[in-house]
Amino acid sequence: MERLRLNMLEEVGETGIKILLHLYKGRSKLTDFKKELGMGYSGIYNAVAMLLKHDLITEYNEGKARYFELTPLGKQVTAKIWEAEQLVRDSKKPHSSK
User: Fold this and answer.
1) Residues linked to residue 91 through DSSP beta bridges, in sequence order
2) Average pLDDT over residues 11-38
3) Integer angstrom CA distances of residue 7 from 53, 59, 97
4) What is the tens place of the pLDDT at every residue in 31-60?
5) Neighbouring residues of 1: CB distance < 8 A, sequence distance ≥ 6
6) Among residues 73, 57, 55, which one has the least CA distance to residue 18?
7) Whole-angstrom Cα distance, residue 36 to residue 8?
8) In this structure, are residues 61 and 67 in contact, taking their beta carbons and an 8 Å threshold?
9) What pTM value is reported for the model?
10) How crowded is residue 50: how many other Cβ atoms within 10 Å of its Cβ?
11) Under 8 Å CB-to-CB from 71, ≥6 apart: which residues?
């Protein structure tokens, strides 16, 4: 059987997924990612590069600040990730029996 290839998910990694979920709330700067994720810039830069490569985020400058936000594709992908996360969380809640 052929190995399942998850190119985008493998390249984006956990840090990229966390960035996508962070951006689901709205645009952000690199410093926001650093504060939220509690990690160094090199890991964040690598994840951002992969997110840009897969057209999941876009970047733009506003004055001296560099912002990132989800692309339309990024919004769709992040909505699915969020939905999957909610499914898993809901499945772990205790079920009441009547």
Assistant:
1) none
2) 92
3) 12, 22, 42
4) 999 998 888 889 999 999 999 999 999 999
5) none
6) 57
7) 22
8) yes
9) 0.83
10) 19
11) 55, 56, 57, 58
